[in-house]
């Protein structure tokens, strides 16, 4: 059988939809594993249908043994709490089955209102402490908290605005953050405090004692708040951006590749990379992608793990394009839509390891899909409901236990007995800020074509892209072809 990714690309680019799926979902993108169907004669097909696989056939037995191997990745079903095993048996094909599980995982990872309230309460306690130390300071939330693209164990990113005389220069920044860290520790709010003062953006890292959430505080850094506005705008344009970002971030966290100061990818870079994948995909209507999450996730792994040329190609989401990098550093280059001079992934020095891990995840997942497809839809074996995503994703026990503790703290009203609870007001943390005018160029779909009777009709598969002013990169849509820079940057234009 052909690989899952190859089949996915065939359907995405050629529009070869599965007939049974198309009845209920016109835009559903199915996987096609019947690689030999076109080369067999009708007699050969009839003959093959009559012959059952021989139990003594060495090749068949070896294939079946290989198909069983992917299940070995799934050691503990308790680490796959999102998987609703029996529901998956209703899937009509492997693509639909993966989609069902993707949606279940997103539902599990998405923050509940109880968790969001507990995060707001943690911020409230920190804000009160900060204003006691520096009465004129202001604490604001940004990053994934502001956009709700955070995982159950994600950090809370805060920025402290303070313009006192002792905050001037790098020495002043260190002094202010050190005093802030000391005050948080003395008031019993911060545990396991780390002062990272020599980084490009100095921060305090600590664990909030009541909720157990990890907190990062920086001083006078405004880009994060502006970035959150752009992300909110992109979430409206591309509904699949949120789900794909959550799963990609979760996978990076399991690989320990989600911290910039250790060479991993930061949250903002992850969002922009996912958005770029959606923008540049050969056949994606960004406004209607939720039915194809499984295909898109496989393609995301393949693109950045196997085909994207990190040496010569950079990502420019604001202008819907790729650009030629001025250097050949082995890191992803991702322009900040709010500031084109800012490369948000410049500190992610461990990109080589990220690529290796992505490539491994792509091959592991597609092997699992091929095996399950062969067992269930070729051999007719009953689908036992084992998680497909479980071969590369899981929820570790500490994360599950922490989430349970947070829910218990909320439902038992324990937080109301904590200092600061009497002044806690959820309306102070309303993150529904208005979205500014779009800066990201949106493509349009639809165009008149002639049908078989010579009449004009609208065809939604016709895609128009607002082209960039730079003629060198006009009409680019992907970087899927090879590692050769000329191939990556000389792609056919859409018409």
Automatic annotation (TrEMBL):
Residues 98-232 form the Poly(A) RNA polymerase mitochondrial-like central palm domain. Belongs to the DNA polymerase type-B-like family. Its cofactor is Mn(2+). GO terms for cellular component: nucleolus; TRAMP complex. Keywords: Magnesium, Metal-binding, Transferase. Residues 38-49 have a biased composition (Basic and acidic residues). It holds the Pfam family PAP_assoc. CDD domains: NT_PAP_TUTase. Residues 1-70, 476-495 are annotated as: Disordered. It comes from the Eukaryota. One of its GO terms (biological process) is negative regulation of macromolecule metabolic process. This is polynucleotide adenylyltransferase. Residues 292-342 form the PAP-associated domain. It is an enzyme of class 2 (transferase). Its EC number is 2.7.7.19. GO terms for molecular function: metal ion binding; mRNA binding; poly(A) RNA polymerase activity.
